Model the fold of this input.
Amino acid sequence: MNPDPRHLDPSDWAEFRASAHQLLDICIDRLANAEAFPWKSVPVDIREGYAIAETGMGETEVAKLLARDVLPYATGNTHPRFFGWVHGTGLASGILSEIVAATMNSNCGGRDHGLVYVERAVVDWAAKLFGFPETSSGLLVAGTSQATVIALSVARLRALGAGVRKQGQAGRWLTAYASQSVHSATSKAIELLGIGRENLRLVPEKNGCMDLPALQELVAADREMGAQPFAVVGTAGSVDFGCFDDLKALSRIARAENLWLHVDGAFGAWIRLADQRWSGLADGIEDADSIACDFHKWMYVPYDCGMVLIRDGAEHRAAFETRPSYLAAQSSGLGGGDPWYCDYGIDLSRGGRALKVWAALQSYGPERIGSAITHNCELAAYMGSIVESHPTMKLARPVVSNLCVFTANATLARENQSKLNAAIAQALQNSGAAVFSTTNADGTVCLRAAITNHRTTAKDIDFTMRAVRDAAETLLTT
Ligand SMILES: *Cc1c(COP(=O)(O)O)cnc(C)c1O
Done:
């Protein structure tokens, strides 16, 4: 018992224990019955009830509130028929690791303690998977958006030298290159680095891949104009159609042109774990200078968890190392240990994100996770085959990996197809049948399924496609 209100621990640990156990059971029940819980909108009174109360109500009340008013209103991406955007689906191992991470409350910016070594184990595993050398480095970040900023910062340091940290770009005109369908995370990173979005040249595509002769022409034209081409961003798994740039050929051009090769592999990099029928799509990623990817997408790990890998650990450190006296290294003790992750990224204080990846890999093993990834590709192909055998549906692009993009009725005028597809996506979300998102393919808004969902079965695909057909019929007759 701790009656002093200035201490924030529970006044009655036995009561806390009981309510925490109860909440844990509710959480496990929810995940064990994931198919019963699609997305649903948050009622207004519940939303308004989230306002912070004047006085605390104690942990037991909060545990009840969490179960009653918060837990039910999730994104729905734990549901087996969630295919929207590119959302990972979570893992039971995450419940275990998040309990322990919250209890440990470690600051993984540096020093000498367990979770720093866990993070190193995760980064080492990933570096090996992607064929990076032992001298490479990496760290876990919120997601690919942040990983891209870090990777391109290191690229900029290589182009401009260490002086860029003191003087900024000092009038130098840098240009970078990526295919037209590059994710907005790359242009955001280019903006944040002060390079300017117009200096990210968008290279035309051929069959969903960056057109490499066009890239070389753009680089040459920029050099002619006095710019300094410094980086090219290859995509392993494009957000719209799941396409892969030819990374082997791209890396040869990058070397020849003295460009840093960064690979955005947010979800697609993990195809490396899939069956041979698909894993080759990411061949060449081992020749990149940096990779950005997300554990929270196609590794199914709970949000948020991305990673940046840099081929040359020394360059990486040179771009971020800062040790004011209050962060001085010690030869031993808690203040010892090397490297410190704060020397490799933006964040000084950072949580134990690596633990949920570690728990996932130790629970299921890379092989089983790989088979889930393979199955997702098979299901996307299966969805594609249903589209192709339907009299009015039509694929926007061939299915390459885990994305299937199609229109529900290709016989309509473009504009009406767009309206229909958008309406189907909304109707299915609202009914809880399935979640598609939409994207624009050649001027038509299409239904888009990105399958990064280890809970999906072939039956779910059948159910979903019947729901699309039914919704299309209903919408077209009303
Ligand atoms: C999701 C995604 C990103 C952004 O990653 P976040 O983890 O959301 O920051 C970048 N590129 C691609 C291809 C993506 O799918």
About this structure: The first helix runs from residue 13 to 32. The CA atoms of residues 49 and 210 lie 49 Å apart. The radius of gyration is 24 Å.
